[in-house]
Design brief:
There is one protein chain. This protein has 278 residues and is of the alpha/beta class. The protein folds into two domains: 2-134, HUPs (Rossmann fold, 3-Layer(aba) Sandwich), CATH 3.40.50; 152-275, HUPs (Rossmann fold, 3-Layer(aba) Sandwich), CATH 3.40.50. It is 39% helix and 25% strand. The protein has ten helices and twelve strands. The protein has helices at 11-17, 20-28, 53-70, 84-95, 117-125, 161-168, 170-173, 199-212, 226-237, 253-267; strands at 2-6, 33-41, 74-82, 99-104, 106-107, 114-115, 130-134, 152-156, 179-186, 216-223, 241-245, 271-275. The strands form two sheets. A ten-stranded mixed β-sheet has the order 3-2-1-4-7-12-11-8-9-10, with helices on both faces. α8 (199-212) links the parallel β9 (179-186) and β10 (216-223). The two termini are 18 Å apart. Residues 107-115 and 249-258 have low confidence and may be disordered. It comes from Natrialba swarupiae. Belongs to the universal stress protein A family. Residues 4-132, 150-276 form the UspA domain.
């Protein structure tokens, strides 16, 4: 399995790459080939006086390459120029990656300002499952918030086709997952469910599948705002990662991302894994 690991050589990116437990988790789910990507923004020019950004980036990224190789992965390095989220997405699609990983500090103290526009823009546009790996928000030398990526999963579903696709990732995540909480939030704004839908029964069917794989499972049915309720469950059960489809029943993908998925990426305490439509 191929994965793209995006880095801007910041402390947040370094925390993601140098966490041996995170790398071990990726190996456990089947990742064996890592593509380390860093993007030189288009507005940074090689001819700027006294600055050779590309040379500096290549030197820094070579140390990350050694860390990943020592963890047992095949590594390919991409140092490219352009708009970060577009180039990261393009490389992931070109190589046929199964996962893109990006570090993010989450929401800043400034109201409605999200740290890491690259993570936000990837959440809106990615065609590859995206793992936003949360790092400490205010530390000068941050560590990852959750040492284990997939040990305790919180899967949120609206029973849409995209949510089912997100659940299908347990076919490989299960090799690193011990516990899972399955959540459905009932909301009057949700037009996608038939009146005779039995959320508890449908969650129980999903739980049966996970328990066959040896994953301890619990169910949560809530009422209210989806993002708020999912985050309330996160506070209660302390998962390592929230797993969610990035589209749901809404035909307007950006509308849903603005109200749920992007909200989770910005506000969650731990990691968030978004699975886009096929």
């Amino acid at each position: 399995m191929k994965a793209v690991l995006a880095t801007d050589l910041s402390a947040a990116s370094e925390a993601t790459i140098e966490n041996e437990t995170c790398l071990e988790c990726l190996g456990r789910i089947g990742v064996d080939e890592m593509h380390l990507v860093t993007v030189i923004p288009s507005n940074v020019h090689a001819g700027m006086p006294g600055i050779d950004f590309e040379k500096r980036r290549r030197k820094a990224i070579s140390s990350y390459e050694r860390v990943i190789e020592n963890a047992g992965f095949d590594v390919e390095v991409h140092v490219v120029r352009g708009t970060p989220h577009r180039r990261i997405r393009g490389i992931a699609e070109t190589i046929g990656a199964s996962l893109t990983i990006v570090g993010s500090r989450g929401k800043s103290p400034l109201e409605n300002r999200v740290i890491g526009s690259t993570a936000r823009n990837l959440a809106r546009t990615t065609e590859t499952p995206l793992l936003v790996n949360r790092v400490e928000r205010e530390a000068d030398d941050p560590s990852v918030v959750r040492q284990h990526l997939f040990q305790r999963m919180l899967y949120a579903t609206d029973f849409s086709e995209n949510a089912e696709r997100a659940f299908d990732t347990f076919s490989y995540l299960r090799h690193a997952t011990q516990e899972a909480t399955l959540v459905h939030v009932e909301t009057p704004k949700d037009p996608g469910l038939a009146e005779d839908t039995d959320p508890e029964g449908r969650l129980a069917e999903l739980a049966d599948q996970l328990e066959e794989w040896g994953i301890d499972t619990r169910l949560e049915i809530r009422q209210g705002d989806p993002a708020d309720e999912i985050l309330a469950v996160e506070d209660a059960v302390d998962p390592t990662t929230i797993l969610v489809g990035s589209r749901g029943h809404s035909r307007l993908r950006r509308l849903l991302l603005g109200s749920v998925s992007e909200d989770l990426v910005a506000r969650a305490n731990g990691n968030v894994m978004l699975v886009p439509p096929s």
